[in-house]
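Hi R.,

Here's the chain you asked about this morning:
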Amino acid sequence: MVRYSKWISLLAFLLLLGACFMPWTFHADINKTFNAFFTEKNMYGKPGKLLLILAGITTACSFMKLLWLKRTAFLAGGLNVAYAIKNFLLFGSCYRGYCPEKQIGLYLMLLSSILIFIMAFLPEGNAKKVEEQKN
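And here is the predicted structure, written out as tokens:
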């Protein structure tokens, strides 16, 4: 699995990209469906932008062989998972006695963010060899 970690990370990034355009929640009280780029009166913002930027950094760093980029992938991946959990809780939470209906995009967003973070822990290649080659 370590051998294919960067490719799994790329596929998870593409899954995240698709999940951002899928419906996340359906709000029957206003009869609207929210996703990563649309909320009523921009109430929840546009979390898809930051999710895709952080996931893109993590995925791009997994293709590089420099040690500091591998460490950057840990940071960006951790921030991405934390932001994904925050959005999962924010979009799926109840307000004023009403609970929105969670859609498939919200679950795929969380799953793909976690998968990208896990793949950051499985970098291809040996970091010691890369460091020794630098010296």
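One quick note: The chain has a mean pLDDT of 91.

Cheers,
M.
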